[in-house]
TrEMBL record:
Keywords: DNA-binding, Transcription, Transcription regulation. Gene3D superfamilies: Homeodomain-like (1.10.10.60). The keyword DNA-binding applies. It comes from the Bacteria. PANTHER family: ARAC-FAMILY TRANSCRIPTIONAL REGULATOR (PTHR43280), HTH-TYPE TRANSCRIPTIONAL REGULATOR EXSA (PTHR43280:SF2). Residues 170-268 form the HTH araC/xylS-type domain. SUPFAM superfamilies: Homeodomain-like, Regulatory protein AraC. It comes from Cytobacillus eiseniae. PROSITE patterns: HTH_ARAC_FAMILY_1, HTH_ARAC_FAMILY_2. This is AraC-like DNA-binding protein.
Length: 276
């Protein structure tokens, strides 16, 4: 399955999850481990520690090696085939979801591409250590380490996406900020950047959390609010200055973004002496 890093972050941010356990395993070169299923009632985060393998969940194959982490749902058909002449060693961090938010991925399988694995592996080894120790303090350390591990995975995944797409998205953002007053479509911007429009929108949202049109709209309205604060232009003139030739459409977009019309916003600034 394909999910954006922002969808995955939203899932972990909104759901309530609880650590269950961690297991490690090693499969020798040229061996296959199959005809079994993932654990019942819980989810798993599969983290490679060394070597490479083809890791299949419900007949979807993931090429697992350094820099690739896979999420597995409950009771999925599992098959593992080692790749190369080295053993494949991996850890599976099991957790359960106590509260499901609007974005639900706990029973889905997907991969997460990672920029750097070193700190993630450190947390894995810490989790193994604390999980084997008795006492309340060890249980607290397990909880803390588990959430640190999830946080680090998401941070490194975000860095991977950002680094990969920084150049084209940075150019797009710069163009929007420099030309927000002009009329142009997202399709025209994508063509200028020599990237297919749909792919551009996907990359832009992965990088910023907003679609290109949402980003452009928010930036234009931010500029309009500033002009309403410092200039003596009419509402229609300000709309044109930020890229809206239709005054009624500008007012509608402004109200949707700000919660009040441009005229009411201007009066609010004047009545509250907000001019600096």
């Amino acid at each position: 399955m394909d999910y954006t890093i922002n969808q995955i972050i939203d899932y972990y941010a909104d759901a309530s999850i609880e650590y269950v356990n961690i297991i490690t395993n090693q499969i020798l070169p040229y061996k296959t481990d199959g005809n079994r299923s993932t654990a019942s009632g819980i989810s798993g985060i599969v983290i490679p520690l060394s070597g490479s393998a083809n890791f299949s969940l419900n007949n979807t194959r993931y090429a697992m090696k350094e820099g690739t982490i896979v999420h597995a749902g409950s009771q999925m058909k599992l098959k593992i085939e080692t790749v190369g002449d080295k053993p494949w060693e991996y850890a599976v961090v099991h957790y359960k979801t106590l509260y499901h938010a609007s974005v639900r991925l706990d029973d889905e399988h997907f991969q997460i591409k990672i920029k750097h694995m070193a700190k993630i592996k450190d947390y894995v080894y810490q989790l193994i250590k604390f999980s084997s120790e008795p006492g309340s303090m060890a249980r607290i350390q397990v909880k803390v380490t588990f959430f640190n591990l999830v946080n680090e995975i998401l941070l490194q995944a975000k860095h991977h996406v950002d680094d990969k797409n920084t150049s084209v998205i940075s150019k797009a953002i710069s163009f929007m900020k420099e030309n927000y007053a002009d009329e142009f479509s997202i399709a025209e911007l994508a063509e200028m950047l020599q990237i297919e429009r749909r792919r551009f929108s996907e990359l832009f949202e992965q990088h910023t959390g907003l679609s290109p049109i949402q980003y452009l709209t928010e930036y234009r309205i931010r500029m309009a609010r500033e002009l309403l604060r410092i200039s003596q232009h009419s509402i229609a003139e300000i709309g044109e200055l930020v890229g809206y030739q239709d005054n009624f459409y500008f007012s509608r977009v402004f109200k949707k973004q700000v919660g009040m019309s441009p005229l009411k916003y201007k009066k609010y600034l004047e009545e509250n002496d907000i001019y600096f």
